[in-house]
Amino acid sequence: MTPPAIDMSSTTTTTSTEDKPKNVGFRIGLGDITPNNLGQLKRLNTVLFPVVYAPGFYKDVLEVGEFAKIIYFNDVCVGAVCCRKEPVAGSNNEQNLYIATLGVLAPYRRLGLGSEMLKHILEQAKLSLTAAGQAKVAKVYLHVQSNNEEALEFYKKHGFENVEKCENYYSQFEVSDAYKLEKVIN
Amino acid sequence: MRDLPSKEANLFREILKCYELKQYKRGFKGADQILKKFPEHGETLAMKGLFYNHLDKKDLAYEFVKKGIRHDMKSHICWHVFGLLYRSDKNYEEAAKCYAHALKYDKENIQILRDLSLLQMQMRNLEGYVDTRHILLELRPQNRQYWVAVAIGYQLLGKPELGVKVLTTYEETLKEVPSTPDYEHSEMLLYHNTLLEEAGDLQAALDHLDTIEKQVCDRKALKEKRAKFFLGLGRLSEAEAAYRGLLAVNPDNMAYFEGLRNSLGLGGDRPTDEDEVKILDMFKQLQKEYPRSNAAKRLPLRYATGEAFVKVADEYIRSMLRKGVPSLFVNIKTLYSDSAKETAVEKLALGYLASLDKSKGFDHSGAVVEPPTALLWTLYFLAQHYDFKRETEQALGYINRAIEHTPTLVELYMAKGRILKHAGDHVAAMGALNEARELDLQDRFINTKCTKYMLRADNMAEAEKTAVLFTRADIPNPLNDLVDMQTQWFSLEAGESNLRQNQVGRALKRFHQVDKHFNDYTEDQFDFHTYCLRKMTLRAYVSMVRLEDQLRNHPYYVRAAQNAVQCYVRLFDKPDGSESEEMEGMTEAEKKKFRSKQRKAELKAQQEAEDKKKKAAVAAAETAKKAGTPAAAVKVDEDPEGTKYTKCEDPLGEALKFLQPLQQLASDRVETHLMAFEIYVRKNKLLLALKALLKSIKIDANHATLHEQLVRFALAVQKASSAKTLKPSVKAVIDQHWSELYDAHGQDLSAFNVAFVNKNKDLGSVPHVISAAMSTYLINPSKNLGQAELLLFSVAEKGDKYKRTRTLENVLLVQKTLKGFKSSRQQEWKAKGNEWFPNAVAFQ
């Protein structure tokens, strides 16, 4: 049901680099998703992913707190990440985190925004291990379309492992196979 | 108070106190207690009436106060109470009479004198105010307020020098000046200084500043005044130093930059080339001094020309695009009054776009990679630029590219809506604004704009639904909050929408609402007549009083008045509204069908309104119950259609009421007199119509609409004289002015019209063509129709002659004019319109 996450690279930081030509500095920042800016998330998803999300998806997004974020580039909303918490069979105080969507608008790619969002999710997952009164995140996982080399590389760079090939996972697409990637949090 | 034994006399004193402390119920009981023993005691009866007034029993209030006066005609208390009663009903004239009566029986009653002076100020009886205030000052010379009030009276009378005298005398009586900073004293001194300035003696004002300096708290005002006086006195080097000092405090105050420029001898709107260089140097210096000042960067664009302009504009626009400043275009477009600047900016922006597309920089040097938002804001800028030039296709192209680039940016959809609005597609424009709104539901600005666009698209239901998203939710009818908050733009836009849909009653209701808001503003100043004197905020007070005097010159009122006049004129022309605009040109059968359709729609609307009213009443009762307020306090609109206005006896008289403030305050606007003509000519008041025409001629002799009115006036005079209804005395006056109106053309209207056409042949103004065509038609409707049509179609001529004024609004006006002629060439014109404005719904 979930499309592949979008390609990302993290060669640029938020300040200008020493390389030539010189990059002009810019600001990035993460923001909460609220009922008031949900329209922006919907717009992003419409443009970024070939899937129409059901109203339930957006209802859940409002309830996962730090595990769903919008990213701003020079104060313009250009990307988002949305995760879902899933119970772990046979455990009361553990859960898995599934990255349902992570994407950045095309003109804003290769500027480190995807990494910024993924890092935030992983940090929050780690925090859950020590936070009281909250189920601990055992692992973070997601699916990537099997031909999406860039995405595979992106997640591997952030410590994800390819654990399973899911045949015909994206039944509606031409390339229907997907890889399941996961990272254990500890 | 009189004739009461001591026990009751004490009680009476107590109820007076109750009134002051607003303990109305207690006071009421006390009054009743006295009346039990002395049922005919006039002053107590009057007081009882006053308490009734505050307990919301108007009828009884008047009854008892009058009864009180009957029993005690010579009591100043009774008359004072009567005055207070009138005042609470805003009947200031009657109130003032009562106070004057009261003063007859107690000449030196401070309270009554003060109350009278407040009324005199409110009614701007300034001579009376000064007199009353003089009496008060003599009674209480030790009180600062009374001195100051006399000075204010003189100032408003245009005699600031007398005000100065009063204040000087007062200051001399002071044994010692406050040693610690005293805000009130400081304000009084600054006010004194303002009077000196107004009296025109800048040197005296400057010297005075030096003497009061130590006691003034408002240091900024002190510095600003000093700089201004130096400049006014031509002491330029001191002025320069003073303005530089001010800039150090606030380097974003445009007025300080202007002052500095003037004190350097570089003033004026159009500097010489030599001065231009100096001005630009000055700003360069200031930019270095104040790198964070936006004004120092923006102002050079105003003064630079030619190459120098390109240079400063390039720098400025680049930095703004890089930063992502949404308001950039709004800031730049004011420069477009100079077409060379417009061209230069366009060239720059197109250059940026080409470079950004190719090498991600603002130029091809390859030295800098701009952030992706630079391209985004450049596209946004270009879209607005071309929209400004009304090049719809270009504008839409750029905005669509921008939306494709970053579909989450709210501003883009707003710009798109604006482009579509200008192109004449209000429904699509509303759609774009709603998209913007849905991207950011918590932004009141977008919500408001979206509501406005819904009203422009005549979608009242959606507009109301959207507007109430940001009004108070805890009142029975959240739409009423818009009235309580005096949301004038909403009343105006909604009224104009009603008018477009031929709902004249509803429209008038809204325009009267605006008028009422302005009444309220006038009323609202009442409390400040005492408050400001007490607090010594005198400079602000005087500026408020002067603002109040000009209030109805505000664009909102002007707009409401123009619309209301239009409504009432329409009611006069078509009293039963039977011939609405849609019906013009229909056959009888079609009309019948149309009417029955309208009736059905009306019935349905009525039914719906009934249901809504019932629901609202239930809901209101519910909320009232919850809030614990009595149900009676919740008002239900008894007349949503505004039949009160459509059924009025004298629509033109009502129209005049809207017009009169404009005749007083906006007599320099030709529209005021054009409106006046429309009313007077219908009232058959030919002399007043003549007066309106003469005033219009004085302001703009070649005004397009004026010409048509002149022709109509001549026709009206002809008609009156052939009907033998023209009084000789009236005719004499008209004859006397005839040549001022019609030059040497005498009674030959056709020649007059031809002369107008010839005179404006090369002007390329569509409104003038419309006026000429209209006149041609009116002179002889059956014979001249073809000729009038020809004139109108000349607007469609090839070439650039009419391109500038062939705006959507004007092309629609031509269409409306043809419709008025019942011309057979309407379709032909519509096709032309469609060619020029493919997006405009009216031509599809």
From TrEMBL, chain A:
This is N-alpha-acetyltransferase 50. Keywords: Acyltransferase, Transferase. Residues 28-182 form the N-acetyltransferase domain. Pfam families: Acetyltransf_1 (PF00583). It comes from the Eukaryota. Signal peptide: none annotated. GO terms for cellular component: NatA complex. One of its GO terms (molecular function) is acyltransferase activity, transferring groups other than amino-acyl groups. Residues 1-21 are annotated as: Disordered. The keyword Magnesium does not apply. GO terms for biological process: mitotic sister chromatid cohesion. The keyword ATP-binding does not apply.
From TrEMBL, chain B:
Residues 578-587 have a biased composition (Acidic residues). It holds the Pfam family NatA_aux_su. Residues 599-613 have a biased composition (Basic and acidic residues). Keywords: Repeat, TPR repeat. GO terms for cellular component: NatA complex. TPR repeats lie at residues 76-109. PROSITE patterns: TPR. It comes from the Eukaryota. InterPro entries: NatA_aux_su (IPR021183), TPR-like_helical_dom_sf (IPR011990), TPR_rpt (IPR019734). The keyword Repeat applies. This is N-alpha-acetyltransferase 16, NatA auxiliary subunit. It comes from Linnemannia exigua. Gene3D superfamilies: 1.25.40.1010, 1.25.40.1040. Residues 577-614 are annotated as: Disordered. The gene is NAA16. The keyword Membrane does not apply.
